[in-house]
Amino acid sequence: MNMITNHMPTAELQALDAAHHMHPFTDGAELAAKGVRIITKASGVTLTDSEGYEILDAMAGLWCVNIGYGRDELSDVAARQMKQLPYYNTFFQTSHVPAIALSARLAELAPGDLNHVFYAGSGSEANDTNMRLVRHYWAAKGKPDKKVIISRHNAYHGSTMAGASLGGMTPMHEQGGLPIPDVVHIGQPHWYAEGGDMSPEEFGLLRARELEAKIAELGEDKVAAFIAEPVQGAGGVVIPPSTYWPEIQRICDAHEILLIADEVICGFGRTGNWFGSQTFGIRPDIMTIAKGLSSGYVPIGGSIVCDEVANVVANAGDFNHGYTYSGHPVAAAVALENLRILEEEKIVDHVNDVAGPYLAEKWGQLADHPLVGEAKSVGLMATIALTPDKSSRANFASEAGMIGLRCRERCFANQLVMRHVGDRMIIAPPLVIKPAEIDTLVERAARSLDETYASIKSDGLLKAA
Ligand SMILES: *Cc1c(COP(=O)(O)O)cnc(C)c1O
């Protein structure tokens, strides 16, 4: 069999990478100086790099390898589908069995009357679709002025022009002239960072009501949709106060605003239900999906759309939108097999009944660490806030993210992939993680915290802003 193997010494691979490969979300010069880490294989929850070093991947790649690495069923299905029909499009009144079967399956799995799927190659593309879809929908209903999309600061909805505009990441907006017109942002329900002396419940209501105020300011006849992640992922695993989502739902219902739940991370078991919307009692009109849909084995994303929106769009002539790879047969077949494994192996129940509660208990104990201001989780996504002063939830005096980066580097050295968002540390391990592996994860995290604490103390960085 022809495989792309580790055919060169690591240093040579690093030199080629530095010379020819532009990395996403990376300081290129810094990386070239340091040398990239090269991952060569993976199995279950464990990665192996080009030096043979094994690392527990507590981020499931980029929040996507829900069923874990190394499932031959998916590669077998991909090979079979490539032989049968490697490609055909879904434009111009054609279809194929994988896209049909996956659409029917997703309609069964998705809550309520979310029964129609429009495919994309990624989560970003799916959110581009959503933006055009909701505007087209309102125009078809005779309300072409209803086109503003309201999102939130520190949201992540992808990296295309529309995706990054919908997102609320300032460093992304600063490059390339974003956001594009008619996308506006309100505050995020991030109690730990922004809630001050309010209770989380009070703060959740306050932030939800910013949506109502924004709708009033713009005029109900100008607003097409509100988009949000059930739990902000890339923003730092921001688990909203219990009061937040019910109030958002009430406001969307009261003002005829479509609700788009970006389920790219929360979907397919992450929060202990098939979708984050079920965990938080959200009734979206559209859900964005990607990542866990194929467990990252092949790129695929999409929008699951409710009956009303799909029917209006279906009866409004051509929808002049689509991607060459919308519903790609190999990607659809792999996604379908991934869903079969999630279901037959009861992996969502495993998150809800076993791994989620176990992680909550063990992870929660990290809150006792002197460097930790809070330790929270929902299902298998979790966060800790690093702080120099637990009682006041203070930030560090040093540049934001510097301590988080140090901690991430300690994690790497301790064979653990944990990501940092500013000075928060986050995890989202494969959903198949076993309790014994959670023990290892939390042990390595605790050791990394100890080492970070010792190092910043000796460097005089344990100072509040
Ligand atoms: C990752 C992500 C996206 C973007 O998906 P891509 O496949 O990277 O384009 C969109 N929304 C959320 C919530 C995400 O986490």
TrEMBL record:
InterPro entries, per the entry: Aminotrans_3, Aminotrans_3_PPA_site, PyrdxlP-dep_Trfase, PyrdxlP-dep_Trfase_major, PyrdxlP-dep_Trfase_small
Requisite cofactors: pyridoxal 5'-phosphate
Any Pfam family the entry gives: Aminotran_3
Keywords, alphabetical: Aminotransferase, Pyridoxal phosphate, Transferase
Keyword Membrane: no
Region forming the signal peptide: none
Nucleotidyltransferase recorded as keyword: no
PROSITE patterns: AA_TRANSFER_CLASS_3
GO molecular function, one term: transaminase activity
Family the UniProt entry places it in: Belongs to the class-III pyridoxal-phosphate-dependent aminotransferase family.
PANTHER family: AMINOTRANSFERASE (PTHR43094), AMINOTRANSFERASE CLASS-III (PTHR43094:SF1)
Annotated protein name in UniProt: Aspartate aminotransferase family protein
